[in-house]
């Protein structure tokens, strides 16, 4: 077992929890402990916030020229490239994903740091505002928000950390990050790389510990200027309520219940049919469905349904489960015993409500938190499994007859993170994409994202955006500077001045 009890970093010092408490990190493949981290609490959190506050108010990083900030982010990207295999393998073991997924995550983190480095390095000195007079100089500049509290989820711990850390640092902020207590190890590794790259001490702080203490304290802390949270809806609403008293900036990404709409014309040839089925598997079962944008709702045109679902179920049964570093493994386990139990309960409720099981629906023999990729046919919006986010390898199937019905079904959700439409009709693709109330819409694809494009959702999928220029904007405050180059009396209130002139 790897001992990493000193996983809290405050003001330049790695330390254990002040209480001495620790937590075992469990390998979801075999349910054994393989690492130990510090279990921080409220006092650890307060000290981390104080360090970030001092580093922002009087430290070097907020005053570092933009070109130097960008250069540091590029150094971090180079270090990620250097340590790709090590960190990818750690992400695979910690989160239960395949090694290739872990490697891809490291590549995406590298790309995020490079994108935000390029974005800020290419900026000018502000946006000039035409005041209508040569005697007025008016410019809007952007300044860092201040101390940022960053709370990340367990499914993509490294990737989600980078989506927050890279823009926060690019904008000149300092931060305290709380990774999920279940999967904290690669975030600790990322903080180490930031320090190796030369980030001033105090700018980056991490407290490993539970959301109920560390996360709750960050949300309410009066010295935190912004809180960015990615996770579940229930926890996200608690964060927003706790942040309200201090009127801090809040950004929330709270998951989704994402439709994958397949029209029959998208499957008019054997190659097109194969592609649509393949992508539906990818949409639903990558990382065992533990993806906020998972295409867990297949909405397929009625004439295509039987053929499509039959092939989908056949291929789902063939997905190879196992340890992510083993040769040929395509899908790992769920992240925890609690997540496995949650998935089993959703499938049981769906079957009780009339869903028809076409594939999966069971835990395979052996240790760990594995669950077979599951296809549930004959589903409808009255079922919990269709309305609520399962965060497991469970795909529900609904059908439609008209384009209008397809759009109505796809939008019939409290969430609005992502969705897709499959069709060979270009006009239909554009109509449906425009009608879907989701933050990302794919046409004839599923899951890709670009660091240059904003990511976030409508409705209960959250508020604010990550990535893109909008993602950088979350970590900035706009300031208008208005300079009068030829000041003179206004004489709005004449008073004694007019009497003296008289």
TrEMBL record:
Record flagged with keyword tRNA processing: no
Residues at the catalytic site: 253
Domain Aldehyde dehydrogenase: residue ranges: 17-481
Functional pathway: Amine and polyamine biosynthesis; betaine biosynthesis via choline pathway; betaine from betaine aldehyde: step 1/1
MF-aspect GO terms: oxidoreductase activity, acting on the aldehyde or oxo group of donors, NAD or NADP as acceptor
Keywords from the UniProt entry: NAD, Oxidoreductase
Family in the record: Belongs to the aldehyde dehydrogenase family.
Record-given protein name: Betaine-aldehyde dehydrogenase
Lineage per the UniProt record: Bacteria, Bacillati, Actinomycetota, Actinomycetes, Kitasatosporales
